[in-house]
Amino acid sequence: MSSDKTRRDGPRHVAIIMDGNGRWAQARGGPRLFGHHAGARRVREIVEACPENGVDYLTIFAFSTENWKRTQIEVAGLMSLFRRYILKEMQDFVRQNVRVRFIGDRVKLDKKLSGLMDEAEELTAQCTGTNLTIALNYGGRDEVARATQRLARDVASGRLDPEKVDEETLPRYLDTHVLPDPDLVIRTSGEARISNFLLWQSAYAEYEFIETLWPDFTAAEFHDLVSAYAGRERRYGGVKA
Ligand code: IPE
Ligand code: IPE
Ligand code: MG
């Protein structure tokens, strides 16, 4: 049965660095925000393609802790886009049985946006289909720093024995504590770097750096990358079986 095979061999968790919106807009003579709007519209098709590709977890990088360095106009436009996007898609996610989660530091976001993020998480908390995680004001180093702060508090209060801290301890404090590690990380737009995305979690992920700009990324290309993953051999430091 081919669908069972896809499920067994394919990546269970795919993470995507959605890059190239600015260049996509520039190529069309439009402002960067034009590209971000086009990029946001691509998300739905990829979320919808997850079940047929055997992908249970999709994590997408929407805004990094470093993206605040952009112009005030671009940052404000992105924040307004995120608010509108969540408001508009929330009910559809429920209808499609998509469970939405956010990772990143919410404290630094405006109250209206973080309120909508909480609302979307609560509204979809009972959904049992695709797990969509949106990384917003997310940075891998920032996440590890925040996790370490919480871990240190537990040590200070006597809830955690420092001698018992091991590889399993820190992930319990990360924003992603309920998610499995990503199996496949895709970055669009031709850049071969990870830009502070899921640093701890991607230690053994497979990477695909593709030329397509995010607003041009399709479900067909997603399917091809997921299929190519199935042919790869992951060794985790061991030797060929
Ligand atoms: C990715 O597209 C979206 C965000 C970082 C918010 P970019 O805006 O980085 O697009 P390029 O890399 O400039 O083309
Ligand atoms: C990474 O893209 C962040 C997101 C896709 C949200 P950037 O465009 O911000 O990364 P750099 O600056 O090229 O490393
Ligand atoms: Mg970029």
Per-chain topology:
Elements: H1 2-9, E1 13-17, H2 21-27, H3 32-49, E2 57-64, H4 72-95, E3 99-103, H5 111-123, E4 131-138, H6 140-156, E5 184-187, E6 206-209, H7 219-230
Bound molecules: 3-methylbut-3-enyl trihydrogen diphosphate (2 copies) and magnesium ion.
One 3-methylbut-3-enyl trihydrogen diphosphate is lined by residues 17-19, 61-64, 67, 191, 193, 195.
What does this protein look like?
With 241 residues, the protein is an alpha/beta fold. The chain has helices spanning 2-9, 21-27, 32-49, 72-95, 111-123, 140-156, 219-230, and strands at 13-17, 57-64, 99-103, 131-138, 184-187, 206-209. It has a 6-stranded parallel β-sheet with strand order 3-4-2-1-5-6, with helices on both faces. The protein starts with a helix and ends in an 11-residue tail after the last helix. Residues 1-8 have low confidence and may be disordered. Residues 17-19, 61-64, 67, 191, 193, 195 line the site of one 3-methylbut-3-enyl trihydrogen diphosphate. One 3-methylbut-3-enyl trihydrogen diphosphate binds at residues 18-23, 63, 67, 78, 189.
